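Sat 14:20. Reprocessing the chain from the morning session after the first attempt stalled halfway. Input below, unchanged.
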Amino acid sequence: MSLLRITIISSSLAFLIACTNPSDAITTSPTTPMRPSATILVATPTAVATATVEPSATMTATITPTEVATATASATAVVAQYVFPVQHAEVTYGKFHHDYPATDIFCAEGSEFVAVTAGVVDFISFKDIWDPKTNDPNYRGGLSVAIIGTDGVRYYGSHLQSIAPELKVGMTVRAGQLLGYTGKSGDARLTAAHLHFGISHPTTPEDWQVRRGEISPYPYLQAWRKGEMRAPVLP
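Finished this time. Tokens:
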């Protein structure tokens, strides 16, 4: 074999060995970045995630239990309507009463006394039997009416001149319905005409200490005159 042929064969073997050397492959691989294939360029995970979190009609309609409770309460809650107890008249009244919580609403005799809210007639005094000699507190109110509102509060008005026609105990009334006309019955015959207005817990007709008033009506009267629907809070 000639020297030239041996040299060519040796060179060929060296070339083949160099191409299969693992160290050469590791060295050159990082410096030659792999070009992303068409498959890698397809953002399959992103597309799946987008499809998962994208709001659908069902997800939009889904609400948390808290939201369900709130929505249910809002849908079923009934907002009571309140009106000022004396209508179509000029009135004056103060923040304070004498020795217990109540409000004397001074107005002309014959002014309309109305239900401040919807409820049921709880008590009617049709006769003025107050006697200044005995001054029985149970009869000081003279002609009077009390209702228990749908809010669970008792509203009492006394010193009336007359009771609304056909008004009966147990009758359902609406806010603003006529209950009677203001006057000077009971111990008001010795004072200026006014409506004694009391707010209390429900009680028996004979329980004059509660029915006359447990909390000051003044802040509620102020609100109702402005058209604000403010419900009394009892202790």
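The chain has eight helices and nine strands.
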